Amino acid sequence: MSDQAIVPDRQQQLPIYAKAHISSAIRFLRQGLPRTGIDNDQARLVIGFYCLATLDILDALESASSESEKEGWRSWIWAQQIRGIWGSGFRGSPGAATNQPASSEYDPPFLIMTYAALLSLAILRDPLTQLDREGLRKYLKISQREDGSFKLFPTSEEYDLRMTYCAFSICSMLDDWSSINIPSAVTFIQSCRTYEGGYGQEPNNEAHGGSTYCALASLHLVPPSSNYAGSSALLTPAQHAQTTRWLLHCQDASETGGGFAGRTNKVQDACYCFWCGASLDILGMAQVVNADANASFLLECQFRFGGIRKDRVSNPDPYHTYLALASLNILSKDTTNPPFEEALDPLWNARASTQLWLKQRLHATPATAAPA
Ligand SMILES: [Zn+2]
């Protein structure tokens, strides 16, 4: 059955099935991956992050989980911190190592897992005193390639804008950019720009919603003290207009649409409602999105018994669940449905109080207001 075969009646917008999504996220955290998800075992940390972020964005972590449970999750995440010849960072699960204990060249940290670990620990309100900052700085330095891009893990040949975004986010969380070469990294980001106005994962790749988000968020994370700060210095007015136009064209304007596609001439998919929607928010253009149509599509992607799907017919998963909620949060600010407690920061992809928690624990000059 195709997605388009289901013609929604949009006279009345669906409610958000928050209770069901909370139950689904908690079930994943308590029971782990289903047998069919065993291929994703090495990415357990990032899957856990999407579940925790779902609870955080729905303001449900406190009510849905016990103190001892949260302590168990914090301990498990810290057990993934690697200290070795590559410096220090996080792996996705014990299964990501090819030998034990975790200290050899065969047990490397991953940038994506390190980004997810820091945010997860902040959601769980961990004091972050166990973080090996010196080791993390060494790892960031080792991860950067000569062309400015960043490697998936230290011995990997794989590099793309996802890793650049994670490295920039980690530097921003630490408020310490001393271990990376910003000008070189910015040059790499610029080299991924395409004729359409979006960004590919690497130079000469097709424009893609996910990598466009990674590029724009990275450029906007560069600190004000750097010569590379601010979109005006990085995107010319003509580039800004071209990128905005391409992103807006990714939104499906048909009667059963409203969602965003990740590439030109592809079908709408819930995760791109975040990647493209947050990109437009970063560019200061969220107000020109058809937010009601986007919300209608995402709410139709909900599975009644918990979780959100990439479309109206696939199975739900933690990744699409969280990113759909994040898109609703960012683009539906002026509506009452759904009523999120707090706005989401589009650059870190974190709720405001979670972001503040990290800043207060990791920044040399901490933010002033204390979160409750
Ligand atoms: Zn998707």
TrEMBL record:
Prenyltransferase alpha-alpha toroid domain residues: 19-335
Q: Which InterPro entries match?
A: PGGT1B-like, Prenyltrans, Terpenoid_cyclase/PrenylTrfase
Which GO MF term does the entry hold, naming one?
Answer: CAAX-protein geranylgeranyltransferase activity
Q: Name one Pfam family in it.
A: Prenyltrans
Output the Gene Ontology cellular-component terms: CAAX-protein geranylgeranyltransferase complex
UniProt keyword annotations, A-Z: Metal-binding, Prenyltransferase, Repeat, Transferase, Zinc
Cofactors that this protein relies on: Zn(2+)
Q: Which family does it belong to?
A: Belongs to the protein prenyltransferase subunit beta family.
Put simply, this protein is called Prenyltransferase alpha-alpha toroid domain-containing protein
What is the taxonomic lineage of the source species?
Eukaryota, Fungi, Dikarya, Basidiomycota, Agaricomycotina
